[in-house]
Amino acid sequence: MSTATALRMLDLSRLQAASLHLEPYEYLTVDDVLQADCKQAIVDDFPVIDRGGSFPLSALRPGPAMQQLIDELLSREFEIVVSSKFSMDLSQYPTMVTLRGRCRSTSDGHIHPDSKDKVITVLLYLNPVWDSSGGRLRVLRSKSLDDFAAEVPPTMGSLLIFKRCYHSWHGHRPFEGKRMSLQMNWVKNDRYMRREQVRHEISSFFKRLSGRNAL
Predict the structure, then answer these.
(1) Distance, CA of 57 to CA of 44 (rounded, Å)
(2) What is the C-alpha separation between 54 and 196, in angstroms, rounded?
(3) pLDDT of 174-215, one tens digit each?
């Protein structure tokens, strides 16, 4: 495994320079928010995730470089920049981070607006290359994948941040295979975080049990 770097991984100047789009809902994108020198270390330190679904940090063991990236996303400095972009004070909201390592063609990418308990969603993609037409997240104007305002490839450092609302529709065309991403949310209260933690723990238990029974 690699070691974390003392240099900053996030290039916040690129985030600060990004335009905030107001339609179809409030969102912004950055083609690559990561410093070039840290990318391989992040890939090396991404935890092994051999199943579909999202996993809380408590269920994973990210390496030091990956942990540094998470710490920078959870930092007050990052929070201030995002607060400024969306003209709101995010310091009043707790945060949660989940990781994904596998995409399932039948159950991932369905169109949805995100849970009403979420305030701001941050999606950071960590795939060195992406050749598939599937798995590219679309910012949607309606509940149709063909009616999109932006398409975000899940390439290394590609960033999407949006404010959750009742019509913050997003999704992607089917893809099966490895697809590494980090999701961070500012959420309305700690109850949602605890509920999600319990849900993930129960889901992981039954997935492990199912795997043993299949042997």
Answers:
(1) 17
(2) 10
(3) 999 999 999 999 999 877 666 666 666 655 555 544 444 333
Q: In terms of DSSP H, where are the helices of the chain? A: 12-17, 39-45, 64-73, 76-86, 190-213
Sequential DSSP letters for 18-66? SPPB-SSSSEEEES--B-GGGHHHHHHHSPP--SSS-EEGGG----HHH
Chain-centroid distance, C-alpha 106: 20
Alpha carbon distance 203, 142 (integer Å):
31
Strand order from edge to edge, sheet including 177-187: 27-30, 159-163, 118-125, 177-187, 95-103, 55-56
Domain boundaries, the chain: 12-213
The one-character DSSP state at 153 is -
The alpha carbon of 6 is separated from its chain's Cα centroid by a whole number of angstroms, namely: 23
Which has more confidence, 16 or 50? 16
Taking domain 12-213, whether its CATH number is 2.60.120.620 is answered by: yes
Query: Where on the phi/psi map is residue 114: left (φ > 0), alpha (ψ -120 to 50), or beta?
Result: left
Residue 166 CA to residue 115 CA, distance in Å, equals 9
Give, as one character, the DSSP assignment of residue 172. Answer: -
Q: Considering just the CA atoms, what is the radius of gyration of the chain in Å?
A: 17
pTM of the model: 0.89
Residue type (1 letter), 183: Q
